[in-house]
Amino acid sequence: MKLTNIKIKSATPRTKAYKLTDGMGVYLLVHPNGSKYWRMKYRYAGKEKLLSLGVYPEVSLKDARELRDAARKLLKEYIDPSEERRLKRLMCATGSGNTFSEVAWEWYEKMMSDMSPTHQDRTHRILEKDLIPFLGERAMSQVTPVEILAVLRKIEARGALETTRRAKGLVSQIYRYAVSTGRAKFDPAQYLADALVPTSTQHYAAVTMPAEASQLMGAIDGYIGTPTVRAALKLSPHLFVRPGELRHMEWSEIQWDKRYWEIPVSKIKTRKKMKHNHLVPLSKQSMAILQEQFKLTGGGRYVFPSARGRKRPMSENAIRVALRSMGYENHMMTAHGFRSMARTLLAEELNFRVDWIEHQLAHAVKDVNGEAYNRATFIRQRTNMMQTWSDYLDQLKSESGLAANEVPENNFTL
Fold first, then answer.
1. Annotated catalytic residue: which of 168, 271, 278, 336?
2. Does the active-site annotation cover 273?
């Protein structure tokens, strides 16, 4: 029999709590102290659960029945009412906004702080230019896959296929963050991969044959440009670090007495898998280049500062432009290509162990015990390898037969 307001008001406390049933799982629990609580029993995923509907008389009989109906509606949609309430409380507790713009910038502040400046700038640019203007004011829970696809198609239409791929991945990361903070239930971008123009995997162009490397070293030796770019270009094949690591090299990281460059783990691409700073042994040739550069920029922070101001590093395009001025187009050789050149020739021509090379490349290598890469692993062997590599590069340069300002005759087109 259903409850009435008169029956509820007249319910007196007893020595033990007791229930007054209203039907459809709802009942009023009367405690010995006289307080009265609304409860609703229901089953979800085969388990019996209990939902609190409030306290009488703040929640009236009519209110309790409306709350019951709302809970039953959620159950019809395969949603657990208790979990739905928990997520709403969590969302309120965060004190954060719920629009795409608010969540996106919150995610950016929390997740991008330890990323490289280049990655931060690229991510900021995509958010500011391609995503926020179109999705920014929409509530996270209301954005549909079709809306996201329309935004991605705008990027795709201008031929920026790689940016389209990055933007889709960025939306997914933001939504995963929103799900974890209770402001979204799923990632609507996860369904869009097949609706976009596929991007072909492109590897960094690199010179990997001794004859080609000989011509390249001769061309570098004859490069005419600003002293700082010339020094960075000359050092690139000797150290074969990532271009971003070279650009952000700081004088404080050079251990002159120990003859190595210590790259902070925060600057390394694989930093999440590494526990230590990365040591780059400096050959005699590398030391000579750095000592000469120190006369020009030793009073500042960066070894290779920007031409626009010494408080920031050299442009990420500087080495690429230098290579192109020598006749090496992007499909022939890139700044990153020095890494592939070193890896190939060190293994195939100089017969060094692959694991030594991988450690020197700062790849996330683990030892036989599964321990993460240690900065001092194979340091003696790598020091010898780096000197042998520099000597080999000098040999290739001497064999190039190029005049100081001659471009290699290899059918490269400008």
1. 336
2. yes
Query: What is the pLDDT, as a whole number, of residue 409?
Result: 41
**Structure confidence by residue, pLDDT tens digits, 61-83:** 999 999 999 999 999 988 899 88
Q: Which CATH architecture has domain 100-195?
A: Orthogonal Bundle (1.10)
Q: Quick one: which of 159, 204, 151 has its CA closest to 342?
A: 204
Fold that domain 5-94 belongs to in CATH: Double Stranded RNA Binding Domain (3.30.160)
Residue 218 structure tokens: 């001769």
Active site residue 242: yes
Q: Is 272 a catalytic residue?
A: no
* Structure confidence by residue, pLDDT tens digits, 346-400: 999 999 998 899 889 987 655 544 444 555 678 999 999 999 999 999 999 998 8
Q: 381, 371 in Cβ contact below 8 A?
A: no
H-state helical runs in 95-160:
100-111, 117-126, 132-135, 145-157
In the chain, where the domains are located: 5-94, 100-195, 210-399
pLDDT tier for residue 273 given thresholds of 50, 70 and 90: low
Q: Give the domain 210-399 fold.
A: hpI Integrase; Chain A (1.10.443)
Q: Which two tokens stand for residue 21?
A: 């049933």
Tell me whether residue 336 is one of the annotated catalytic residues.
Answer: yes
Given 373, 382, 392, 397, the catalytic residue: 373
Q: For the segment 202-211, what is each residue's pLDDT rounded down to a tens digit? A: 556 678 888 8
302 is catalytic: no
How is residue 36 annotated by DSSP? E
Among candidate residues 36, 68, 238, 242, the one labeled active-site is: 242
Roughly how many angstroms between the first and final C-alpha of the chain, as a whole number? 90
